[in-house]
Amino acid sequence: MNIEEGISSQHISKDISKDTTDKERKLVKQDISTELFPIVDEGGEVMGSMTRKEAHDGTMKLHPVVHLHVFNSKGELYLQHRSKWKKIQPDKWDTATGGHIDYGENVMEALMREVNEEIGLTSGSYEPRLIKKYIYNSPIEKELVYVFTTIYDGELSPSETETQGGRFWSVDEIKQNIGANVFTPMFEKEYTLLFG
């Protein structure tokens, strides 16, 4: 199985703190223990599966993720404020939507699911365009990243459990805050690679 099935030509061109609530602790525990992700090769061919915990334990098994950068017609970029309960990069600003592809999903199914969960957009209300596929290495994981963009001027509904909200940022605001521990390192790298 190749996870890239479903991408059509139209799409191409922490530790938990003591302040964390019980609900947030349950989300973290569920996050780590129940989700399965595909292990893939650099072409997106599924080679096996692993849990979320295994994906982030330093084994560096390649697994796929999707990102959507949402611009408005003024050229501003929408960023989500990551929840404080997130194990990785809590309380930082990040790509509008980013998430793992679940085992058995293809890229487009994962993108539509993540976008709906994180910012409330439904299939057909926006037009994602694949602009880049690359491998990202961090100290704890290795990801095959599928990066999409869209232009959207409507209302966004950020998830109350996945995020602490979000807003549109001007290019100047983003550039002024790069390197200031405001954004996730992955966002900074991706923004600089694609738009900077």
Element layout with pairings:
Layout: H1 22-33, E1 36-40, E2 46-51, H2 52-55, E3 62-71, E4 77-82, E5 93-95, E6 97-100, H3 107-119, E7 129-137, E8 142-151, E9 163-169, H4 171-177, H5 185-194
Parallel strand pairs: 3-8
Antiparallel strand pairs: 1-2, 3-4, 3-6, 4-5, 4-9, 7-8
Strand elements, count: 9
Give a short account of the largest sheet: 7 strands, mixed
Average pLDDT? 88
Structural class: alpha+beta
Radius of gyration: 16 Å
SSE arrangement, N to C: HEEHEEEEHEEEHH
Oligomer: single chain
Termini separation? 35 Å
Number of helices: 5
* Helicity, as a percent range: 10-25%
Give the amount of beta strand, in percent. 25-35%
Low-confidence stretches: 12-22
Shape: globular
Can you give a write-up of this model?
This protein is an alpha+beta fold. 23% of the residues lie in helices and 31% in strands. The protein is built from 5 helices and 9 strands. The protein has helices at residues 22-33, 52-55, 107-119, 171-177, 185-194; strands spanning 36-40, 46-51, 62-71, 77-82, 93-95, 97-100, 129-137, 142-151, 163-169. The strands form 2 sheets. Strands 3, 4, 5, 6, 7, 8 and 9 form a 7-stranded mixed β-sheet that branches. The chain has a two-stranded antiparallel sheet with strand order 1-2. Residues 12-22 have low confidence and may be disordered.
